[in-house]
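User: Before I run my own analysis I want an independent prediction to cross-check against. Here's the chain; please return only the C-alpha cells and, at the end, one sentence I can use as a sanity check.
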Amino acid sequence: MIASLYINPPQTVTIAASPFRQGRKMPNNGAAAQIATEKGLYTIGHVARLADLKPFVLRYWESEFPMLQPLKSSGGRRLYRQEDVDLVFRIKRLLYDEGFTIAGARRHLREHDGDSDGEAEGRDAHHAAEGAAQLLSRKMLLDLRDTLQAFLTLLERR
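Assistant: C-alpha cells:
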C-alpha cells in the first residue's frame, strides 16, 4: 500500500485546437521555402548545409562581419541572397583554409571589397606565389639552421 503512494499512474492529455485555428490549416513551410528559392533566397539551414557549417556559426559571423547582412522575412527568418552565400564561402575560405583570424578576415574583406574578380584572382595568385616563396625560404633557413647545429655539435666534440 505504501509503494502505491510514490507511483504516478500514467496520464494522457488531449489538446484541443484553438477555436481560432479550427478548420484552418497551418501554412506549409515547404511552400515558403519554394518561393524563397525561386527568388534566389536561401534559409540559414540551407546555407549551413551548403557551406558545411552549423547555423550558429553563420549567426555569429553576421555579428562579426558587418557586410554579411541577410534579409529577414516577416517572421524573422534569415534569407540569404546569392551574394550573401558567396560571401559566406569567402569568409569560410579565409578563416579555415588561409588561416586568417576573424579580425584579419574582416579587414581583408573590407580592403578587397571593391575589387573586380579578375584583379582579385590575379592578386590572389600573386599572394599565393609570395606565400609559397616565403614558405620555401623558411624551410631552407630551418634546414640550414639544423645543419649548422649539427656541425657545431661535431666541432664541440673535438
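Sanity check: The longest strand covers residues 78-80.
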